[in-house]
Structures are given as C-alpha cells and as structure tokens.
Design a protein that fits this description.
176 residues; single chain
Length: 176
C-alpha cells in the first residue's frame, strides 16, 4: 500500500446521499441568498427613488412580498434538510437506541407525508392560477409564480426529509 492510500484509509468516503445533501444545501443557500440580495437591491432602489427623486417604484412592495414567500419556503426546505425544524422534545429526550431511531423515523415519515400532501394541494392552486392567467395588480407578475413557491417548497421539504431518512438508514447514526 502506498503512502497516499494510507493517508485516506481511515477517512470515510462521502456517500452519494451525503453528496446530494451538500448539493441541496448549497442550492437552497444560493436561492435564499439571491432572493435576499435581490430584495435588498429593490428596497434600496425604492428608498433612493422615494427620497431622492420623490418617486417610488410602484411594483416594489408587491415584488418584495413574492420574493419573501420564495425565501421562506426554500428556507423551510433547508431547515428540514438540516433537521432543524421545531419539535417537542418531550419524548425524544427519554428515548435511547432503537426506540429513538424509530421515533426519528416516524417524525421524518410524518413530515414527508404532510409535505407531499401539501405539495399536491398547492399544485392544484398553481394549476388553477395558471389556467386563469391571473396576474398581480401592480407588477403584473403571473400569480402562479408566487403560488409555485409553496408547491416547490413543500416538494423540497419532502426531498430533504427523504435525504435525512436515507442517510440515517445507510449510516446507522443520527443526522442533523
């Protein structure tokens, strides 16, 4: 065995699931960061327009609201991926070993099932908004775009939870 192989002998190679986890985390962070940056730029432009040129950007508030919706739902997926969702630790603090694993798996399964249900329901709303061709009052943004944040956010939460479950099953240790 050469020296290079010996150096990496004890280092755990990343699994496909952990690579997916990192890529999802980076993607979520990129979307959240971009959304916040765009919102800040719109807000600054609106403030400058209002106080320097005595004319605000008409579509700014509406657009900022839609950006916030996207940031919140992508953020919820990131929280789910990092297992940072709110939970009552009443039972989990007293559980050990296999019972703790079963409890975590039931929680993840519930989150995944509820996320998929909500994704299905929000898809119906997106489809309806798309078929109506409705746009927002001021900015003229098609209303299926902000509604799509819910669908994609809930789908991303389900995927994030599935990644947690797969990583748990493959590694036999607690994630998050």
């Amino acid at each position: 065995m050469n020296a290079k192989a010996e150096v990496f002998e004890d280092v755990a190679m990343p699994t496909r699931v952990s690579v997916i986890r990192r890529q999802l985390d980076k993607g979520y962070s990129l979307i959240i960061g971009t959304g916040i940056l765009v919102a800040i730029m719109i807000n600054i432009a609106n403030v400058i327009g209002r106080y320097v040129f005595d004319s605000s950007i008409a579509w700014a508030e509406e657009t900022l609201s839609f950006i916030l919706i996207w940031v919140v739902f992508v953020g919820a997926a990131k929280v789910a991926l990092n297992n940072g969702h709110l939970r009552v630790e009443l039972f989990s603090d007293y559980l050990k070993g296999p019972l703790k694993a079963v409890y975590d798996f039931v929680i993840w399964s519930s989150i995944c099932a509820l996320s998929l249900y909500m994704a299905n329901e929000s898809f119906k709303a997106v489809s309806l908004m798309y078929s109506f061709g409705q746009t927002s009052n001021v900015a003229g943004i098609p209303m299926y775009i902000p509604h799509a944040a819910l669908f994609l956010g809930f789908m991303a939460m389900a995927v994030s939870t599935l990644v947690n479950m797969l990583e748990f099953l493959l590694s036999n240790k607690r994630v998050g």
